[in-house]
Amino acid sequence: MSDLLQAxxxxxxxxxxxxxxxxxxxxRKAGAxxxxxxxxxxxxxxxxxxxxxLGRFSLRTLAAWADQRALASMSDxxxxxxxxxxxxxxxxxxxxxLAERCPEAFAGVHSDLRLMAVxxxxxxxxxxxxxxxxxxxxxxxxxxxxxSVEVTDRHEAERLSRGVKAGELxxxxxxHAKAADLxxxxxxxxxxxxxxxxxxxxxxxxxxxxxxxxxxxxxxxxKGMLDRFGRxxxxxxxxxSPVDQHRPACRATGRR
Length: 256
Description:
The protein is of the alpha/beta class. It is built from 10 helices and 5 strands, in the order αααααααββββαβαα.
């Protein structure tokens, strides 16, 4: 069993999340505990979620562990269904803690626009360096919750349009600045905010002419709209020197 699982103080954890009654209410609202059959309550269900993640149990071992401690009595298949049904509930609990501890990170907006951070990371198991997995995530910044997590092999590229929906603003780094992918986002009725090199993807203005992004950034710097670090210039700040004005252009377009 994981040392992290053994070190958990469940009474303290429940207290940090409010109370057992509040956990019951939130679990029911999220659809994680519509029926108590086979599991005692929300606190026990949360212990099962933690045990599965921190204990590194298989589903069959988790079912045996839960039965031994009188937390739940169910098969490994039923356990899987319970865990899947608890995903949104656990996400809501994490969101509430983040909003409480880091209110400045809560990017809720009073409109239908949803701010979605899109990224991917590499998970490399022991062995050849070319044998690795990609974990693709979409994080809702408006609610501070994970919307999707998808694991693929290394042949599946990062895509900004993965699971895109209308009314979203998708935010990502320059690995997602691919013309065809950006077009899919727009076709789905969403918007995007991505970093990009100065020469790719090619952008056209309203007249169908090639858009010179470096020239636009230089012009903004000359007008004092950007400081020498590529940030919006504050009132009263003098524009940078001609040498410095090239730096914000590179910074604004994602070049290092």
